[in-house]
Structure formats: C-alpha cells, structure tokens
Amino acid sequence: MAASARVKALNEVHSVAVIGDLLTHAGAREDLGEGQALSTLQGDLTLHNLHYAYDNDGPALAGVNATFPFGKTTLLAGPSGSGKSTLLDILLRLEEPQSGSIQAMGVAASDYRLADWRKQFGYVSQEAALFNGDIRMNLRLAHPTASDAEVEQACRLAGADSFIRELPNGYDTLVGDRGYSLSGGQRKRIAIARALIRKPAVLILDEATTSFEQSLEQSMLGILRSTMPHMTIVQVTHRLPANRK
Ligand SMILES: Nc1ncnc2c1ncn2[C@@H]1O[C@H](COP(=O)(O)OP(=O)(O)OP(=O)(O)O)[C@@H](O)[C@H]1O
Ligand SMILES: [Mg+2]
Fold this sequence. Notes:
Oligomer: single chain
CATH class of the domain at 127-201 and 209-231: Alpha Beta
CATH architecture of the domain at 127-201 and 209-231: 3-Layer(aba) Sandwich
Strand order of the largest sheet: 2-1-4-5
Bound molecules: adenosine-5'-triphosphate, magnesium ion
Strand content: 15-25%
Structural class: alpha/beta
Radius of gyration: 19 Å
Helix content: 25-40%
C-alpha cells in the first residue's frame, strides 16, 4: 500500500508543478481587471489588418481583415496551418496581435476589461479537453453556479443529454484522464454543452462538429440557431456547404 501510494503521489507531482507555475505566472501576464466595462457584446466583431507571428517563426497571420456579423454564423475554412486557430486565440485575447486590432461596438477589444471580454465567449477548442472528474464537474467548469436544469438544458442543445443518461452513472460518470472513456464525438458534445451553459454572446467552434455525421451537425446547428437567435457563431470547418463557398 505504501509503495502504491508513493507511485500515486509521484504521478501527481508534475500536475502540481504545472498548476503552481500557472498560478504564479498567469496573473503577471494577464491583467483581467483593467479597462472599460462590458456587460453584453451586441454588435459585429471586426478584425482590422491583424498581423501575428509566433516567436522565431514566419507570420501565422499577415494582414487579416474580417467581420463576424452580430447574430449570424460565420464559417472559417482553410488548409491546415493557415492560421484559423491562431485567429480564434487572438479573438479571445489569449494572444496579442503584433499589429492591427479587433473592434466591437465602436471600441478596440484591447480597451475592454479582459475578464468582461472573455465572459462574452463560449469556446470549444480543437482538442475539446475534458478533465479527469465526473461529467457534471466538467460541465460546471464554465459556470460553477449553474443549476442542474441549466446544465441539462445545455446538454440537450448540444445533443449530449441522451447519451449521458445512458452511461452507468449518468451525469456522475467519471470520464478519465482527458475524457478517454468517451468517444471523440461524445467529448466534443460535452465541450459544446460546456460552452453553452453560460449562454455566451459569441460561440466559437474550432472543428467542434467535424466528427459528427453531416445530418447531425446540421440539426444541432439548426437547433442552436433557433434557440439562441442573437448568438454570434464563428465556426471553423472543413465542410463548407456547397451554396456558401
Ligand atoms: N504555439 C505555437 N507555437 C509556434 N507556432 C505555432 C503555434 N501554434 C501554431 N503555430 C504555427 O502557426 C501556423 C498557424 O497554425 P494554426 O494552428 O493557427 O493553424 P490552423 O489553421 O488552425 O490549422 P489546423 O486546421 O491544422 O487546425 C502554423 O504554421 C503553425 O505551425
Ligand atoms: Mg486549428
């Protein structure tokens, strides 16, 4: 028992170091509280001449101009490595562009309080990471005070509620490290539900639905659109509908 406890403890050491590092350095890197207050983003997002290059690398984005209209869905498509995820990171202000700006409701995004800015977004990243815990905990990460009814409503919208109920422990099922005990599509559905719980002004889907059958993808997006008619959606996809290329 002592030997196995020691192995377990050693396994956690790396995680503790990573979390410690984040807690010490993230605060210094990001100032969440300074800037103009923003309660609800109700306008287009406009990108002006964005330039971004990772350290020691050529440009990932070179002069991007775009508008994501309020309450509409915008599809982003392009070859692997063309900068789609980088663009989303800049939109969320996880990265700062070297030049150019994002404008929303007549103000530069960088002038808004970072905490307020981030609250506007529901983000399903390309990896759709889940944490080793139960499903309900994973869903509540985005909104710790959400009621069970709110959690379940978000899951119904994302098409996750029915498969979660069929799992042996329902919403209390443990998903394992990075959610390995679920299929890729199931993980994505939970990540989409997690992004929806806070009813964000802007929903960002980075290839969140590419593993779904096309008919399921279309029905989920249709339900989302009709339930949340004012939500701005930015969707990275490899499947452009034929009539919208
Ligand atoms: N963290 C990083 N550090 C250094 N370079 C990076 C990093 N992330 C992305 N890049 C580089 O920036 C460019 C754009 O990458 P990005 O991930 O934005 O592309 P993408 O369009 O999302 O691709 P995919 O369709 O494969 O997801 C690529 O050349 C990539 O190698
Ligand atoms: Mg990407």
